[in-house]
Amino acid sequence: MRCVYCNDHVVGKPDVVVVQGKGPAHELCFQRSLADMNKRQFAGLDLSNLRESTLRELLDMVTMELNTRSANDEDMVELFD
Question: Domains of the chain: which residue ranges?
């Protein structure tokens, strides 16, 4: 098995992580990829690869989810004082 970033072997190496949706990687390679400002990722989702229409749809979905959660928070009743 090889690192998804540097293509070097990961078997038997210390500090190996599994990157969701990609595969095994050296911890250092993974950290470097996160620090790269050209790659905008969140929770395994590469935002820089999304089309603008898909990104706007994601924004709408996140906004709806936040609105739903804030509406639910207002309806909560305190059971304990």
Answer: 16-75
**How far apart are alpha carbons 11 and 24 in whole angstroms?**
9
46: left (phi over 0), alpha (psi -120 to 50) or beta: beta
Q: How far is CA 45 from CA 23, 37, 67, 69, in A?
A: 14, 15, 22, 22
For residue 13, the tally of other CB atoms under 10 A from its CB is: 13
Task: Give the tens place of pLDDT for each residue, 39-81.
Answer: 677 777 888 888 999 999 999 999 999 988 887 666 555 556 5
